[in-house]
Amino acid sequence: MVYDIIIFEDNKRLRQSLELLLNDEANFKVVGSFAHCDDALYEVEKSQAQLIVMDIDMPGIGGVEGVRQIKAYFPDVRIVMHTVFDDDNRIFESICAGADGYLLKNTPPSQFIQSLKDVMDGGSPMSPFVAKKVFQHFRNQPVKQNEAFDLTDREKEILELLVEGNSYKMIAAKCFIANDTVKKHLHNIYAKLHVNSGTEAVAKALKNNITQRK
Amino acid sequence: MVYDIIIFEDNKRLRQSLELLLNDEANFKVVGSFAHCDDALYEVEKSQAQLIVMDIDMPGIGGVEGVRQIKAYFPDVRIVMHTVFDDDNRIFESICAGADGYLLKNTPPSQFIQSLKDVMDGGSPMSPFVAKKVFQHFRNQPVKQNEAFDLTDREKEILELLVEGNSYKMIAAKCFIANDTVKKHLHNIYAKLHVNSGTEAVAKALKNNITQRK
DNA sequence: TTCCGCATCACCCAAAAGTGGTATTGTACA
DNA sequence: TGTACAATACCACTTTTGGGTGATGCGGAA
């Protein structure tokens, strides 16, 4: 399998180095390389490339906006960011824009090639320092905890089934218990959640992350 | 620089393979390997290891809890998860517990070694498929753009009220329309969302962020 | 203009949801 | 060894819901 690649990179020498590096690989073929991505949509359309290496800091529309545009029209094209920036904003903006990977320019060539293969295999390669930022971001997020509603395991299980859209009867069938028992459980659940209907309970369960996850 | 490593891994053969692999590297020295991490704090204290390779599924307290404990007492020890699990919960739990990297067991040895070096250099290596989950998580969080259900403004308004826990009657009162009209709207909404109950609609609305307000 | 989508309302009817009891297990706990 | 409670079940009853059918007015598009 040979993948057609487009490179967007405004540094001419680096752009040419990348071309050489990638064309050297049997699996890759550079079908276009450009110093800006203002005409990215046209170029992607014309070349039918499957993979894009995208710099961030370029004249005209930046790489992040480029990703957004390309992904909007060609959601299946894989895009790997390749940049010197490791600040949180660029990273998260790129990810949200739809990038499939984020590699810093200090990535060794062999690693770079491997990462591009990874992305074509459905993975999302990330330089370790970028990943570090992501880890920190996660840890800083306020962890929504199961706000002591004192639900028993059985109650959580039944609430879970309700959230999944099951009717009383379906819950009863799936739990091998009587309809009335389901009713009773839900009645207790509603009391504990201080609600009085299934819709409210579902809303509260989802907003407060009450899940049975193992 | 030689780093002292502890391995927690309940599969004996894999544990021994890891020992051989890591001891083969000039930079690494395995100073302990165990089939469970119940005594992790003691072992880390005693050996003064700087790096830990941690399985998740082990008898006794699992790897995630192990990470939590170790990080609480030895925040500077680096911990890399090494597991077959690529489900969202384990990944995010591990990250939140304080893991510094997350590698799947199918990682090739050379890559594995490189990743451990990366983590000692301050990075957070992550297998591409793990990173993919993280990417998806990011994209699902802030995205509020899910217009795909073709709800009219009025329908969104009424669905919103339903999500807030209002009954048909209450919605009717708040919108100054008849109960039957509310019923009709919700009927249409259910059809558009491909559901057939209020609870399902609420779940779908919340999961797809159809809501307008914060 | 005519037609269509949207919002509105009405009526019938069956099923589901929700409320209030009572009661029997089994288990954990002090 | 008694108490507490979760889980189960049954009964009676009311309210809410959801499905179906149909109709009206209104504004914009064909």
List its salient traits.
homodimer, 5-stranded parallel beta sheet, 5 strands, alpha/beta, DNA-binding, 13% strand, 214 residues
Describe this structure in words.
The structure is a homodimer of 214-residue chains. In chain A, 51% of the residues lie in helices and 13% in strands. Chain A has 10 helices and 5 strands; from the N terminus they run βαβαβαβαβαααααα. Chain A has a 5-stranded parallel beta sheet with strand order 2-1-3-4-5, with helices on both faces. In chain A, strand 1, helix 1 and strand 2 (28-34) form a beta-alpha-beta unit. In chain A, helix 3 packs parallel to helix 4, helix 7 packs across helix 9 and helix 7 packs across helix 10 (198-207). The longest helix of chain A is centred in the last third of the chain and has 15 residues, at 179-193. The radius of gyration of chain A is 25 Å and the shape is elongated. The two termini of chain A are 39 Å apart. The mean pLDDT of chain A is 86. Chain A binds chain B through residues 92, 95-96, 98-101, 111, 114-115, 118-119, 121-129, 131-132, 134-135, 138-139, 143, 162-165, 167, 195, 197-203, 206-207, 213, and chain B through 89, 92, 95-96, 98-101, 111, 114-115, 118-119, 121-129, 131-132, 134-135, 138-139, 142-143, 162-165, 167, 195, 197-203, 206-207. The structure holds a DNA duplex (30 and 30 nucleotides).
Itemize the secondary structure elements and their pairings:
The structure is a homodimer of 214-residue chains.
Chain A lengths: L2 E6 L3 H12 L4 E7 L5 H8 L3 E4 L8 H11 L4 E6 L4 H10 L3 E4 L4 H12 L7 H13 L12 H11 L4 H8 L3 H15 L4 H10 L7
Parallel strand pairs in A: 1-2, 1-3, 3-4, 4-5
Chain A binds a DNA duplex (30 and 30 nucleotides) through helix 7 and helix 9.
